[in-house]
## 1
Amino acid sequence: MNTGIRIQQRALLNAFIFFAVVSFGASAHAAAGDQDLIKKAGQVFGPLPQSMPTEQNPITPAKVKLGKMLFYELRISIDGTVSCAKCHPVSLYAADGLKKAKGNNCKENPRNAPSIFNSAAQISAHWIGNRTSVEDQAKQSVTGPPAFGMPSYESVEHILKGMKGYVALFQDAFPGEKDPVTIDNFAKAIGAFERTLVTPAPFDDFMKGNAGAMTEQQKKGLKTFLDTGCMTCHFSPYAGGQMYQKFGVFEPYWNYTKSEKVDDGRFAVTKKEEDKYIFKVPVLRNVSMTPPYFHDGSVDKLDQAVWIMAKTQLGKDLTKQETGDLAAFLSSLTGRIPDDAATAPILPAME
Amino acid sequence: MNTGIRIQQRALLNAFIFFAVVSFGASAHAAAGDQDLIKKAGQVFGPLPQSMPTEQNPITPAKVKLGKMLFYELRISIDGTVSCAKCHPVSLYAADGLKKAKGNNCKENPRNAPSIFNSAAQISAHWIGNRTSVEDQAKQSVTGPPAFGMPSYESVEHILKGMKGYVALFQDAFPGEKDPVTIDNFAKAIGAFERTLVTPAPFDDFMKGNAGAMTEQQKKGLKTFLDTGCMTCHFSPYAGGQMYQKFGVFEPYWNYTKSEKVDDGRFAVTKKEEDKYIFKVPVLRNVSMTPPYFHDGSVDKLDQAVWIMAKTQLGKDLTKQETGDLAAFLSSLTGRIPDDAATAPILPAME
């Protein structure tokens, strides 16, 4: 072996060592960064549960089976066109793609329909705290004038009692009750079904330690989410739903949204001046898949919604890069829909 | 063994022989009756196919996948609330339970929405022959004023082209086409999906030779169906859908239905006097599950609809027993919905 070749070999070896050290250093650094991010994310969000039962409404297979059927039931609305699934269709991640939900006889609801996925563990249902739980929401919907529009709870019970299939299912779901076809059991059954609707996402895989489950841009967006202050309100496994907050802390929201009118928010419920423009912080699970955004659906694009949020809530003027990164992170919250949730139930025949 | 006991034994033996002969005779008789009925049913109806492709629109998995998504697509309607699935929800056996279908902005359609199950092999779609096929129906619906209400085919293509997810699916479904996102391919994809929607029922099991698949009353009803003349129009594996017929051969239909107005039927299409009150003979598959009945949904109960049919079409005044038997037979046409049909597809996000 001549000197020239030996020098070449040494040069190659040096190059190898150099690259190996650099790569190893980088990946060790990346791994440490990922571990740090996973840890921080775990502290803010925490693991998504498999379901969201409560003591008042434990989940049972019989309740879920009935609740799913009732979720799809159209014949208990005043014009026969409204079911829970109308405003929460699985195909659009259980939101409806409209600015504001449309109920019976095309009546417009006051606000945007939120997704029903991952929604049962919030402090309240809907936007302004006038629905205490998913059960309360199901119950109030049937007589809500722009929702199902039925004249009374009794009229709903009457229709359900007229179908033998339902009577048997209520008996199964609420064993031992003499007259189980009641509006409260209706609400409990739908609630039990909704409490199963959890959609684990790549972000959850990441939080479990699989650093490769998120792209580099998604991770960058997560860092920005944590560093900018979004997580002050959007925390918990649902990235929201745990508190009320003024929409427009730094500036009125309508300076930036395309709102057609100003919504007083929770003031409508409490009549307290300090509740003006207060809304529930929405859950961000599947947010990429459920435009348009905000309580009035006035913004179509996610990156624009993100920019408006930072501007009005945090007084920050995000760059295009930052809003892009944040939108990328939010897309990692798009989850897997449970098979059972995606299968339409067959309803009893009208007799 | 004493004589008394021997006589008792002989009496028992005689009794056994007597009952054995009677039972065997009866079951042989029943079996012969069933075989005869199975044979006759086979001649009138024939076996239900596994799917209903045409030469113009062969079924491919890629077309079915896309077609099913388009079937659930709401965002191609003028008010964002209408999809094929709105008037054909799986949960109600792909009919909508209304007298007349409701389209965009709650506009009422002129007639009752027929089930889309087992419907693709008819002479035409809908009631009066103004939709030549399921593909033609899908295409015409999007611009139909009381249906999707879109201003043009181009406006639908524009929305679909705006979602990358759809562009890729059209490319897969129509390989080699330079610009596959067209309204005609939209129609073909939905048609291909609908051509898979076949629901085999207990009646099919019976026709295959399983005499126990139908109850005695259902068999009695089938005999009545064949003997009374119902099968003159309601033949083929779909028990209908193969011809037009005047509604009111013996008497005007509105003498018995609760119709709010007289519908001229196919006259609206051809303007020929002889086409007045002519409608397509509807498919009877799943008819028990899809009230209300007739082109205007003016009758709620199946036994009443059966009675009116015999009266107006055959000039026969059926007894309560006969209408009950016929309704029982029709319930044997309630089929099993294919798993794939019952699963909601997840749609691409709006970009």
## 2
Amino acid sequence: MVKKIPHRIYLTEEQIPKQWYNLRADMKEQSDPMLNSSTMQPVTDEDLYPVFCRKLAHQELDSTTRYYDIPEEVQEFYRMYRPSPLIRAYNLEKALGTPARIYYKFEGNNTSGSHKLNSAVAQAYYAKEQGLTSLTTETGAGQWGTALAEACSFFRIPLTVYMVKCSYEQKPFRKAVMQTFDADVIASPSNTTAVGRKILKQDPDTGGSLGCAISEAVEQAVSTEGCRYVLGSVLNQVLLHQSVIGLESKIAMEMIDEYPDIVIGCAGGGSNLGGLIAPFMQDKLTGKASPRILAVEPASCPSLTRGRYAYDFCDTGKVTPLARMYTLGCGFIPSPSHAGGLRYHGMSPILSKLYHDGYMEAISVEQSKVFEAAVLFAKQETILPAPESAHAIRGAIDEALRCKETGEVKTILFGLTGTGYFDMAAYRSYHEGTMVDNIPTDDELQKGFDGLPKIPGIQG
Amino acid sequence: MVKKIPHRIYLTEEQIPKQWYNLRADMKEQSDPMLNSSTMQPVTDEDLYPVFCRKLAHQELDSTTRYYDIPEEVQEFYRMYRPSPLIRAYNLEKALGTPARIYYKFEGNNTSGSHKLNSAVAQAYYAKEQGLTSLTTETGAGQWGTALAEACSFFRIPLTVYMVKCSYEQKPFRKAVMQTFDADVIASPSNTTAVGRKILKQDPDTGGSLGCAISEAVEQAVSTEGCRYVLGSVLNQVLLHQSVIGLESKIAMEMIDEYPDIVIGCAGGGSNLGGLIAPFMQDKLTGKASPRILAVEPASCPSLTRGRYAYDFCDTGKVTPLARMYTLGCGFIPSPSHAGGLRYHGMSPILSKLYHDGYMEAISVEQSKVFEAAVLFAKQETILPAPESAHAIRGAIDEALRCKETGEVKTILFGLTGTGYFDMAAYRSYHEGTMVDNIPTDDELQKGFDGLPKIPGIQG
């Protein structure tokens, strides 16, 4: 008799990982070092101290420590909302008529509505531990800002959030959630920073961008005593913290004697994708298994599939160090897409390197197809997905439909990063048929590439 | 060594109840029978057939069957989002400095955002099984409408939702969720029914009420071939389905060797409260245990604490049968409170009877105090509660603070019925200090009582 796999697989509290996994420790080749943009030399821990708190600066640059102990205070917070369930999508499988077994790791069961809380808790804790008195950050769709507000409220550390202005105006309720957790929310670009004032002078009506909000948050942090900046994606430290997603997923799959043939994640800056795939990529790097790893990005902001692998700034205002990554150019402003959390010009340097070296695949999808998948999923699985997460759903559905054609019984794992309760304007636009797929032309992309920094001896 | 109780206690899939529990089977005295308003005789199954599908009509009137098997199709749906977690509120306890142990049963982990799905699935299933071709319902805050839309979409049965007009206008995103699940959402009062047209003629600018939306939904159901009406609270059948909450809670508490000294639920029509307390009330009725049972209702709509125990209509348009319950009068229009799900003039006849007979207590609380509790809870427990649910939180916090004074180590269980993602306008009003506590005067209540129906020989 075949043992029936339950719909929801939960780890016990004791099984929640007590260490994060640092994927870099198993990479054959490291991603190129972050460069100090003044000296064009690799940045040191000390270079980062004005921006990041010390332990996070160390985690950012440490490619050798394989496992980091999760501080007890962070574990205690994790226990409030973790383990997150690994869910067998029985009803989605049935609706698709696929022989594939589809699993998803659902990270939306907390007020922030997404996986972002996993790193927010860590970053807020380390800041508090160092005795910092305030933090700044940026947010696009609002999930990161909400997660960090929640964590900062818990650890009692004041937070200022620069929220991309078009989001600030379109999502007043997102702002209200952050304010519930005592965050100070400012529409970016703003008059509170030099870079904000400069951008406003050039274009007073701009809706802002994630790159611009980052510039403002960094400027505010480095010019305020006891203040540091925190970021919800792209960074190595964020992927480290998010590895808890993949580690839990792997344990849950082992409990039901499963292993994924393919692991699928949505890809913006890479925080969820990097965390979800971490232990499976480890297996691949160490030759223990060879799962396919698939990144799904928006066609409107296709950094992996149409970007350049080059050194670039992480922000629009060019105040950050340079990172080598797949990028559309820090001056590239993605068209307004409803997956605000994926509207970033670059991609995690770790993931960029792995993609460059052939360890993972990437596809881009139009948002109308993404919402089609989101609605189908919602009706079958009782979870209303965030537009970002729905990119992974689209990828998983397409793989499952291919299995239907070929008859292959593949095991598919995808990351369901969060819920779409604050994205109903997007759903409405989909229902009303007014959703537009904005795909950049080659000429538009070329303009972004033309703005890539010149680095003597490295990048012409 | 004391074994540490985990933060989240999950039943295994096999432990999810396979039967609902019918509290009436253990009541010493039954609640008075529902009366046909034309004949003033107790209603029969047949009387209800034009309104409810047959199996639900039977459940409505059956006070003897102790356990009902949950149909396999309903169980299959339950397995998608159940078990819901029983959560130990360690961080809330710490913040309060209470010796009490606080547990909450969290029902918000599904797209409907609340416990309402438990009955929606059952009602949609029975309708489909009977071969009905459409359903109608009403919704106030939108949680019931969303839950039913989700269930109807799954079982492929068309649904029309009459949404209280002020909610319809204030909560466009709630509407968008229901539309995502293919529901037809109509602002009530509307021109689609005679009762709607009548009310609109009297007061074209009315924001509507739950009682009025019920009248419209019932009229639409009884005048449409193959259509029936479904309701998300008040009814005996709803309490039956919602018993899954209490049954799961009791099993989870047994797993950690706990039993509640006090069980607390928010009270509107009684769907959550009745479900949560069911097995604990059974213990009380059968003499096995004597937990305190506490209903927390809004001061703006205090049916238990300030209402009359009398026969009344369940709707404003007086198209429903008469039920004996605690009521403020079916003509009472509660002031606009943010807990839209609790703005109902009456209370479940079962709960009314139990309250009348001294088996449970009730308190009413002002919404500003409710939101104070909601914000404290959100910051400590990573869940943003619905305003309705926050009434129970307020009750639990006050009990825990009393334990702090007396030093008693009580075990408190409360129901966290749902999330507040669509209630951010209310949170914003709380933050901005513009929230008003509308408490009806005695004169205002008297007007409602004056409208109670006269029933020769029963009620003068």
## 3
Amino acid sequence: MQKDVLENLQAMRQKSPLVHCITNLVVMQVNANILLAVGASPIMAHAQEELEDLVKIINALVLNIGTLDKHMIASMNVAGDFANKYKKPVVLDPVGAGASRLRTETALSILRTIKPCIIRGNGSEIMALAGEIGETKGVDSTKDSLEVVDEAKQLAKTFQTVVSVSGEVDMITDGTRVAYVHGGNPLMTLVTGIGCSATAVTAACMAVAKNPFIGAVSAMALFASAGEKAGKKCQGPGSFLSYFIDELYNADYEDAAKRVTLG
Amino acid sequence: MQKDVLENLQAMRQKSPLVHCITNLVVMQVNANILLAVGASPIMAHAQEELEDLVKIINALVLNIGTLDKHMIASMNVAGDFANKYKKPVVLDPVGAGASRLRTETALSILRTIKPCIIRGNGSEIMALAGEIGETKGVDSTKDSLEVVDEAKQLAKTFQTVVSVSGEVDMITDGTRVAYVHGGNPLMTLVTGIGCSATAVTAACMAVAKNPFIGAVSAMALFASAGEKAGKKCQGPGSFLSYFIDELYNADYEDAAKRVTLG
Amino acid sequence: MQKDVLENLQAMRQKSPLVHCITNLVVMQVNANILLAVGASPIMAHAQEELEDLVKIINALVLNIGTLDKHMIASMNVAGDFANKYKKPVVLDPVGAGASRLRTETALSILRTIKPCIIRGNGSEIMALAGEIGETKGVDSTKDSLEVVDEAKQLAKTFQTVVSVSGEVDMITDGTRVAYVHGGNPLMTLVTGIGCSATAVTAACMAVAKNPFIGAVSAMALFASAGEKAGKKCQGPGSFLSYFIDELYNADYEDAAKRVTLG
């Protein structure tokens, strides 16, 4: 597993996948900066008139419902259908699922119709999608990743997907296997868009991965390594972001791979 | 007053209010990062289909007209009505009022129908809303806060609200009392979204405040303290933002409270 | 030429032009921060109801198609028409031209109807607009500026405009003369919005320039100087952005002017 992660991260930087993000308005800039820092190439676009042209040339698609509205939902559905037509992997970030019916239902609808190969969220979002009543507080998580292992496995099985849950220890499952990723820093929850950027980097890793499970684990391993190092240098969340992007750029893939254990 | 400010800031971090921002596209990221740094929790959402669900769980609502259009205005009105229904405080940032009729009229319409408990803006915006012909230049201010004390008092009385005006010395009035906040740094006007973030933090303070006057003063005191400290460390507006967020995170509430005087 | 650049940059900071950006959702914050750092004043607005009010008071208009959709295209056309009516210069950034028909056609339509005085893009975008089949990869460039000199000249002549192309060496042409700008740092391509911000600063310089050629060269000279200095201080793209904004704020205009040569 650690060898697979190492190779996945090296391949991601070498091939520089083009990741198309239909994502929320809050995190577009930091998502693009983090994709560039890890060696991938970002494109943000939502006009239905250009989605087929773009999906043809991309290597992975991110659907992030963080500031969804009916126009964005329509764009996500069109882009998702083209991604399936052109066999490009789709990663879903169900931001705020559980906080409103619109978010929960949109995420479930994407799971049913677009069939993303990875869902990447926090504990509360995964709980909400798994049918539990999540005690979601806004878009932050009140459930730790390790509290939702059973729900994540169930969700993965139901939708034949991989579920990647960030937390103090990240937890990734394909419904059978469970991987854990150790590291990071609590400040990662105090900078907006770090979670959404983990989703974008998951898509970048997925674009060159043997399978979605390895792709999902690789991205979280890279974030755990860079986050832990940045956390030791910073004086707060402002300087953390700057150091974190630098650490992603100067990434130590062997350190990242060592952070993975199988449960 | 200083004791009230100290207690308000401590309560804000302890209770971590969920602040819903319907805000402009330029500042969403920095608003979210600054809310997280001060200990609050941000949510950005504008889809009318989810506004009731979300307003039920939030602790305060920010309406910021910085990149308004008819869709955003409609969302602000719906969210504002729900905020009144569910008794959640509303803070208005009339960005660019005076620069276009659309902005001035939208801000006045929100004041009349939603009745926010605090208006937070710069001198030019307050002049424009008070019926004077503001020499507004874009969304920056050409009027200092201390030049608009009478207009701010009048505006506060007319709409039974608190008016909080940023400037070299910040000035806050409920129509009768006037508070001044000393500190900050001129670079705060050279980083986009610092003013809008002061509005967001005003909403966070308001969510746990004895009254809007104290809430409004507390937020400006926190910014004045952190801004002054960051200004001493930075080499320009790029590094200022990073230091400023760190200083907000490591805030010294006693230093903040000492910056307040009553006029 | 170097003296013209020096005077243009000094005039830009002294007059603080108000630059109206109808730009993409990814870069709004960094564009605003960089305009403020160089001494200009930004405004972002797209509501058709306020475009005439605003275009009357601005000094230059940027049209950037990075996250275009039919609403944004309509706003760009309305704002462009008002800019022509009120004789305000327009600068076009054809982000991603060549990556989709929508982008290529929208850029060409703006060139034909709004007639911007400067097009600022990367090599692939200029190739696509010049009718070559650009090997565009997303919104990043796969063509260096020096590979597209002939196409840029042709484009400039066809549309009677100036074409400014970023690259390892920046290249600017009015169809006859060609200027080169030396400096910068490769990390400038790994921070989202640096190119779009070069466009915004081009508009700020244009607002006070003798002619579009000098305006376009001046902005690239300023970026080359600040980028080279920031690149020597940073540890990666995260800290680069912070240093770059500081260097723009503390700009050395004589160093900037010396980076220009005529071909």
